[in-house]
Design a protein that fits this description.
The chain is built from eight helices and four strands; from the N terminus they run βαβαββαααααα. It has 208 residues and is α+β, with helices and mostly antiparallel strands. It has a four-stranded mixed β-sheet with strand order 2-1-3-4. A hairpin with a 2-residue loop joins β3 and β4 (61-64). The model has no long low-confidence stretch (mean pLDDT 94).
Length: 208
């Protein structure tokens, strides 16, 4: 059975959700953030040197990095489900959006968070550049979801598992105004109706 080391209110919820979608049994070990700093507890460093989540244990294997974990679980335990084969017409879209979250969306949100905490004066060029980048990244998602119901295309895939946390759980750290983003809002509603997603959120962050 896979053990998932999960930090509350973090991207490690992706792994819980993935296991629920694939119908895999898992053991969940939860960690809470420091109430003042919102940082991960020292106990996570005993699990992995980076002291961050997610981390999984599978037999004698210990693996970190959410994208790597998602690919590993799909390949080793998921029978290749929730990913598209190379011959699928949407294969390139799947690859792009699977990597988009950690390659563009999460970094853009992270930079905006740091700039917000730095409290730079209004109109500061770095602040403007960071906010502009975030707006373009979010608009890319909005545009894509106007073309297809899910990021890879017609089918729900691991690209969606990787992306949703940026618009849901990350709101606790940096709210993004989705008022002018009807496609993203409709997408999140579709995701929220998935039984596996509901089970995953109840297990990973029951207090939110």
């Amino acid at each position: 059975m896979i053990t998932i080391h999960h930090l509350g209110r973090s991207q490690s919820e992706r792994i819980v959700w993935l296991c629920e979608e694939l119908g895999l049994r898992y053991r969940l070990v939860r960690y809470e953030r420091d109430p003042v700093t919102q940082l991960a507890p020292p106990a996570l460093q005993a699990v992995h040197p980076l002291g961050a989540a997610p981390v999984i244990e599978d037999g004698g294997l210990k693996l970190a990095e959410s994208a790597a974990i998602v690919e590993y679980i799909i390949a080793r335990h998921g029978g290749g489900r929730l990913k598209l084969a190379a011959e699928h017409p949407d294969f390139a879209q799947f690859l792009y959006w699977f990597h988009f979250s950690n390659g563009n969306l999460q970094p853009a949100i992270g930079r905006a968070m740091f700039m917000d905490r730095a409290q730079l004066p209004a109109g500061h060029p770095v602040q403007a550049a960071v906010q502009g980048r975030l707006a373009r990244v979010v608009e890319a998602v909005e545009t894509r979801l106007g073309e297809a119901p899910y990021l890879a295309g017609a089918a729900f895939t691991a690209a969606d598992v990787m992306t949703v946390v940026s618009f849901t759980t990350m709101r606790f750290f940096l709210p993004i105004d989705l008022g002018p983003r009807p496609n993203i809002r409709a997408y999140l509603q579709r995701i929220g109706e998935r039984p596996a997603y509901r089970r995953a959120m109840a297990a990973s962050d029951p207090q939110r």
